[in-house]
Amino acid sequence: MKAVCLLSGGMDSATLAYMAKHDGYDILALHFTYGQRTERKEKECAKRIARHLNALEFFEVDLAYLKLAGASSLTDRAMKVKPHEEAGEGIPDTYVPFRNANLLSVATSIAESRGAAAIYIGVQSSDFSGYPDCKPEFIDAFQKVINLGTRPDSGITLKTPFVTLNKAEILKIGMDLKVPYGDTWSCYAENEVACGICSSCHFRLEAFRQIGMQDPIPYR
Known about the structure:
By secondary structure, the chain is α/β, with parallel strands linked by helices. It has a single domain (2-210), classed as HUPs (Rossmann fold). It is built from 7 helices and 5 strands; from the N terminus they run βαβαβααβαβαα. The chain has a 5-stranded parallel beta sheet, sandwiched between helices. α1 crosses α6 (167-176) and α6 (167-176) packs across α7 (199-210). It starts with a strand and ends in a 10-residue tail after the last helix. The model has no long low-confidence stretch (mean pLDDT 95).
């Protein structure tokens, strides 16, 4: 069995790929660059995780048009990545408009062409309020798109095993699976030493704190 795993290089996606391997799938690792601030570090980490898992293939796809679209502090250098304490409520400035639909469209093309039975994406419960393309309703709708838009015998299942879990629960699973978190990166702002104050760093550090473990990556 083969599965396309969306592998950003972050904590959740690495755990996701290890879970897919544990579930019995051979991994087709899919990584995206789209002008994000930390794309160099993310790519490096994604490649490392793919090697750890002996991925059958590593696909690197450039979605530069997402940077052209802008409207996100991840891709627009004129916008500041706010510290978590300043992020406020609602949709955060780090939201890349309709990104997951773009990522899943590419993943579906690869899954169908390679005869993969599944696509794994690491959406999780703490994303729902801020990111509309992480909601269970969106995932359900995209599964219908896959069913309608691929060959009748494709049988591709969109898998979201973390959709009801928080980051600490995901981290516990990853510890059991021996995910090498030192080879992952979550910071939105920096490539060498994590800022420690953006929302992604905040939630990652909080997850490690909750399970009583030290995060192995460097912070300011």
